[in-house]
Design brief:
Blueprint: H1 4-11, E1 25-31, E2 37-43, H2 45-54, E3 58-61, E4 66-69, E5 78-85, E6 91-98, E7 113-116, E8 119-122
Parallel strand pairs: 1-6
Antiparallel strand pairs: 1-2, 3-4, 5-6, 7-8
Protein name: Phosphoribosyl-AMP cyclohydrolase
Pfam families: PRA-CH
Catalytic activity: 1-(5-phospho-beta-D-ribosyl)-ATP + H2O = 1-(5-phospho-beta-D-ribosyl)-5'-AMP + diphosphate + H(+); 1-(5-phospho-beta-D-ribosyl)-5'-AMP + H2O = 1-(5-phospho-beta-D-ribosyl)-5-[(5-phospho-beta-D-ribosylamino)methylideneamino]imidazole-4-carboxamide
């Protein structure tokens, strides 16, 4: 049987983000119109707070160990229109309007290849 904290997190109205042992949540950015998956990244409490304050997607860079605003160097910002929260509040979907390609490679989405057997094949639009 679920305890009251679990019930509140899974069925209540309070936003109680459940960060992992490293203080992170998984965040998937999807295009607000097409619903295409654009990228996956991680958010710590600071990134989540800055995203909510500014309307621009902020993430925690695991490789650099610091906060980054998507687009801060490229100009390809992700403007957040909505934040969807999963059932146990440990993952988010950011519905965004991209201002340019979402992927650092210049592709519109980071998910521009699919697995075909043991080979990666570029996805055609």
């Amino acid at each position: 049987m679920a305890n009251s904290d679990t019930l509140e997190r899974e069925q209540g109205r309070a936003f109680l983000p459940k960060f992992d042992a490293n203080g992170l949540l998984t965040a998937v950015a999807c295009h607000a119109d097409s619903r295409e998956v654009l990228m996956l990244a991680f958010m710590d409490d600071e990134a989540l707070t800055r995203t909510r304050e500014t309307g621009l997607a902020h993430f925690h860079s695991r490789s650099r160990g610091k906060l980054w605003c998507k687009g801060e160097t490229s100009g390809h910002f992700l403007r957040v229109e909505d934040i969807l929260v999963d059932c146990d509040q440990d993952a988010l979907v950011l519905m965004v309007r991209p201002e340019g390609p979402a992927c650092h490679t210049g592709a519109p989405s980071c998910f521009y290849r699919r697995l075909d057997g043991d080979v990666l094949v570029t996805v055609k639009d």
